Amino acid sequence: MRRIGITGGIGSGKSIVCRLFQVLGAPVYDSDARAKWLMGHDALLRDELTAAFGPATFDATGQLDRVYLARVAFADSAQLARLNALVHPAVGRDFEAWANARRAEGHGYLLKEAALLYESGAYQQLDQIITVFAPQPVRQARVLRRDPHRTLDDVLAIIGKQMSEEEKVQRAQHVVYNDDEQLLIPQVLALHHAFSN
């Protein structure tokens, strides 16, 4: 079973590309969604987060206090690195269990969607990588439409912290162009057929 990674910067359209693959029957692991779930539900990770960031990480009802954790973890790069060093391995373990279950179901390939596929080292678990590419002005406009609470400065700050699109394109084996000019469906169909054979 082939393990395919799919990445791209904020606003590139990773999610819509993943939905197209899902329509074709491909299982997709959403790393960001699973990371959020694991932080609240995985016992080992909960213990590690509490040890690293203190008892206020979880409120009196046992729920993750995301506001507190964000305030602490994003205060400086060392704290963010500490958080990532706990969360990324937990996501890696969870992905392995999920991938094994998909193999048992007989799938020919699966996708792992992650914004930080290279930065987290997750690409090492995968056979091939797809980068979803869109020019920065298109990405900025999409994020501002999608997230009206964000300012252009917010979006530029996020883009500035991510690996450049050019580097992601160079490192990937496949590129899906989501630039509002080229059709997505034919590109996804071509990849689906390649991965299925």
The value of Rg in angstroms is 18 Å
Alpha-beta content class: alpha/beta
Instruction: Give the proportion of residues in helices.
Output: 55-70%
How large is the count of helical segments? 9
pLDDT < 50 stretches? none
Shape: globular
Number of strands: 5
Give the C-level CATH assignment of the largest domain: Alpha Beta
Query: Main beta sheet: strand number and arrangement?
Result: 5 strands, parallel
Here the CATH topology of the largest domain equals Rossmann fold
Q: Return the domain count.
A: 2
Sequence of secondary-structure elements: EHEHHHHEEHHHEH
**The CATH architecture of the largest domain:** 3-Layer(aba) Sandwich
Could you tell me the strand content as a percent range? 5-15%
User: What is the CATH H-level superfamily of the largest domain?
Assistant: P-loop containing nucleotide triphosphate hydrolases
In words, what does this structure look like?
- It is a single chain.
- The chain has 197 residues and is α/β, with parallel strands linked by helices.
- The chain folds into 2 domains: 1-27 and 115-197, 3-Layer(aba) Sandwich (Rossmann fold), CATH 3.40.50; 33-106.
- The chain is 55% helix and 12% strand.
- The chain contains 9 helices and 5 strands; from the N terminus they run E-H-E-H-H-H-H-E-E-H-H-H-E-H.
- The protein has helices at 14-23, 31-41, 43-53, 66-73, 77-104, 136-146, 152-161, 165-171, 184-196, and strands spanning 2-7, 28-30, 109-113, 128-133, 174-177.
- A 5-stranded parallel sheet has the order 2-3-1-4-5, sandwiched between helices.
- Helix 2 crosses helix 3 (43-53), helix 2 packs across helix 5 (77-104) and helix 3 (43-53) packs antiparallel against helix 5.
- The model has no long low-confidence stretch (mean pLDDT 93).
